[in-house]
Amino acid sequence: xxxxxxxVVFKEFCPLYYLLNAIPTKVQKGFRSIVVYLxxxxxxxxxxxxxxxxxxxxxxxxxxxxxxxxxxxxxxESITFVKLLSCFDDLVAVGTASGRVAVFQLVSSxxxxxxxxxxxxxxxxxxxxxxxxxxxxxxxxxxxxxxxxKIVYSALDLDQGVCNSSLVxxxxxxxVQLDYNQKxxxxxxxxxxxxxxxxxxxxxQVGTQPRK
Length: 212
Description:
Number of strands: 18
InterPro entries: WD40/YVTN_repeat-like_dom_sf (IPR015943), WD40_repeat_dom_sf (IPR036322), WD40_rpt (IPR001680)
Structural class: mainly beta
Organism: Fregetta grallaria
Pfam families: WD40 (PF00400)
Strand order of the largest sheet: 3-4-5-6
Protein name: TCPR2 protein
């Protein structure tokens, strides 16, 4: 006898005012008042990460009910993508409209975990807006894609504080999504979806017809 499926319960969620109220709606830059727009979002069981149009990353800790702020030095530019990862350490990768990518290794109160905020920069390769970021499960690999079709692989050594980056793939259209698992990078662009095998550096297209 077939089992009866449990009924689907629809639930309404209210806006996260406790989170939104901790983010300013305007900031003062000299004599100008600049409106703050929320431009990127990612969540996991520990954090809610919100990127903004002023280059500020707002990171809300769900366990401590605390909001922290992180930014890029220099020019304030819009954050276009954020990606969280919880592994041995908590990491968040951030991409901007000009192609800057940074990784923040967060502070943890747990024994044996990271006790000092550290930042790693992926610089000099992307020249246009970051549209996708993907972590490996252990936090040692980060893939970043931009709206010109470039995909960059960054190898992170958190113990040594080193980040080495290189261009691994270049597509003729914008990258819209990345996902990585077991040495295979899934890439979606405006024109096609493909599998990039990182060990062999080979490409296999998913499907045969280009997207319209």
